[in-house]
Amino acid sequence: FFPLQKKRRAATARRQHLKSAMLQLAATEIEKEAAAKEVEKQNYLAEHCPPLSLPGSMQELQELCKKLHAKIESVDEERYDTEVKLQKTTKELEDLSQKLFDLRGKFKRPPLRRVRMSADAMLRALLGSKHKVCMDLRANLKQVKKEDTEKEKDLRDVGDWRKNIEEKSGMEGRKKMFEAGE
């Protein structure tokens, strides 16, 4: 029991020591990189941006302004070109990553929601202004004649109810009912 606990303490102490050593190394590397970037920046500025000397006369000052404007335009053109190249490459990267994603075939299907929409509305949403066909589903159904039932035949035979009552009223109607009952 005790030797196992000693080994664990030693292992955690060693891990902590290694971790602190790695952090110190990383800190020194970061400082070196920052110093190298600063030196590189100073070299670039010294090379591309000479120290500014302001001329005394107005004509020399105007020429200096013209030179600076020309330089600004050329730098802007370069910046625009690099931005366009960057946009192009990011679009290509997105397309390639989408193709890679599609080739793997492991994509999650989004959860579908029920939408109440008629067939016409759905086609109009999918096709836009191209949709001209009317999808009236009931228009294509076949017409079926109903079979005549006995009740409907009786109702057709009876005809107009006023005419039937007039026939049964008076003595003739009672006579007919009496003869029919026998």
From TrEMBL:
Q: Which GO terms describe its cellular component?
A: troponin complex
Has UniProt tagged this entry with the keyword Acetylation?
yes
Q: Please explain the role this protein plays, according to its UniProt record.
A: Troponin I is the inhibitory subunit of troponin, the thin filament regulatory complex which confers calcium-sensitivity to striated muscle actomyosin ATPase activity.
Record PANTHER family: TROPONIN I, TROPONIN I, FAST SKELETAL MUSCLE
At the top level, the lineage of the source is Eukaryota
**Gene Ontology MF terms:** actin binding
What Pfam families does the entry give? Troponin (PF00992)
Its protein name is: Troponin I, fast skeletal muscle
Q: Indicate the quaternary assembly.
A: Binds to actin and tropomyosin.
GO biological processes: cardiac muscle contraction; skeletal muscle contraction
Protein keywords = Acetylation, Actin-binding, Coiled coil, Muscle protein
What does the similarity note say?
Answer: Belongs to the troponin I family.
| Coiled coil location | 18-106
